[in-house]
Specification:
Chain lengths: 98, 315
Amino acid sequence: MANDIFNYCVATNTGKGFITHTDSRKFWIRGYPANVWVCADMMESRLWVARNNGVSKTKDQAQALVTTEIEAAQAAWDDLSDEEKAATSGRPTTITLP
Amino acid sequence: MATYREIHGVNLQYRESDATAIIGDVWYNASTAVLKMFSSVGSWSSGGALNGTKAGGTSAGIQTAALAFGSAEDSNNCESYDGSSWTQVADTNEGRNHPLGCGTQTAALYAGGTPSSTSSEEFDGTSWTEGNDLNTGREQVGGDGIQTDAIIFGGAPGLKTETEEYNGTSWSEQNDLNAGRRYIEGSGDTGQAALAFGGNSSNPGSGYSAANESYDGTSWTEIANLNSGRFGSGSCGSQDHALLISGHESGDTETVKVEEWNGSSWTEVADVSNGSNAITATGTGLDALRISGNSPSTVVEEWTATATVQSIAFD
């Protein structure tokens, strides 16, 4: 669901053809945990959401999905031993959507 | 501000016609009175999704004929890419993550990896065979090359500076990196012409290195730094034209930024759509694959760039 600047949706990355070179040249797009995608709100990005069967979300709904996924990943990291933690590149960090 | 001469070591070329250029070259065409440059413009698109995660893994080959193998989960698994989809092929003999991977889809090399392994394996397009071991066991390494002429450098435990070259038969000690780093990135067509850049310069802890070193077959020289220090990125390309893709950046963020090396300096280019760390990448500076990462772990993105002569206009 758009907020004049961005639109937010949940869509499954189906691989080849999900984002094309033409898409990425036409509009700004970012993927986040929980299959959340944020696009610059314009006609081309709305068509992209429809083409990929995306489900529109408000910013708050999208943020809640991302936060839930990150908190689960942080809890999993916290449960690692010190040795296992040292082998990782760090604790998953909190993400704030634009 | 640095001058063109200070960065490139030469003055701007003054020519009667356009140059046969390499990426990054700038010249003044006197016959048309136009300042020109040879640069690449690229973008990312979705590639075929992996069958299983390759987070912390490595890769070999080109955009349309690649291998992905070695990862933190399902670590013996190896997948082959044809430019559209991934197919499982023969497992590696040992499962290791954050190793060196290089070479081609039908002649790949797989060395080191967690836990501080000295193991080295070769792939012939059908199966993996044990080769002679590394001299120094290590993980979170950098390296590049082909199966008969490769290099491995840096890594953990600690912050390794050791460098070894592979000649298709055995690994031999070479001169060390100037700055030891783990999760270090590398590019190069052979073991005799490599770049080592980025990485984690403290263990444990943060330490987002922007350092960049060039190897001439004998020793390492510090050259122009990255714009953004980071580790856990993906990297590919040659000593003259390389990409650094995503990774863990200062502020504990997983950046979507991509930097392109033109032989002299790093420039930020189009972002990937998913920022992550524990990425691997393969291909050239013009046609590359970004493979996997911590989250989402089966994602693949394809970089395609075109190198063109552009006129530079001034307002």
